[in-house]
Amino acid sequence: MLGRRTLLPICLPLLFCALPVAMAQTPPAAEEIAAYRGLFAAAHRGDAAEIGRLVTGGADANGRDGRGRTPLHVAAFARRHEAMRALVKAGADPRALENQRYDAVTIAAVADDLETMRVALAIGGDARAITSPYQGTALIAAAHLGHVDIVRELIRAGAPLDHVNNLGWTALIEAVILGDGGPRHTETVAALVSAGARRDIADREGATPLDHARRRGYAAMVVLLQ
């Protein structure tokens, strides 16, 4: 995924013929990384000692780059765990949102990076946070992508199982309609159902997760959702 969440074109009876492609997460590009100085450069390198020195010297742990990323976002994209811890110790907001409204937890969830997500939660990130341009959650993003280990960890962390995003979809609906019906998405559906996710919440057209699974011929999901 390279840190980008894309809504793939699909065709749903009675709904619509395609979803717009949306580039949701934007990790720092090579030219941005090359231009980073100070805390942003230290965060990308994972230099916790330099982060401490810079903050002691007056650097702003919550400064922003041109896309609204804080050094903590940069460290999360780069999987620099000690830098993440050092930044929060130095006063960085562990729940900060960048311009596209992603936090460190959701960045790691989309990347299928379980260890970074655990760090993001341990330093104060919130599994219940409303994130992304879709007003969703890290759980919805992970379910969409079939990142089942991330889904299980977020469930343990108290992520809301039945949050409805601005597309009208829950994590369970996204696992069905944006998944491929294969093992990863089927396990994601199983994890959500086992945790108590409501199977009766329908989309804006009145279709439930079970309706969508039947339409697609996802037999294993149908069994789980009945």
Characterise the protein shown here.
The protein is mostly helical and 226 residues long. The protein has 13 helices and no strands. It is elongated and about 60 Å long. The two termini are 31 Å apart. 43% of the residues are buried.
In brief:
With 226 residues, this protein is mainly α. It has 13 helices and no strands. The radius of gyration is 19 Å and the shape is elongated.
Oligomeric state of the chains in view: single chain
Beta content comes to under 5%
Counting H and I runs of at least 4 residues, what is the number of helices?
Answer: 13
Shape: elongated
Output mean pLDDT: 91
- How would a crystallographer describe the biggest sheet? none
**Strand pairing plus helix content: what structural class?**
mainly alpha
Which radius of gyration do the C-alpha atoms yield?
19 Å
Uncertain stretches of 5 or more adjacent residues: 1-23
For the secondary structure, the number of strands is: 0
Distance between the termini: 31 Å
- Along the chain, the helix and strand elements come as HHHHHHHHHHHHH
What's the helical proportion of residues? 40-55%
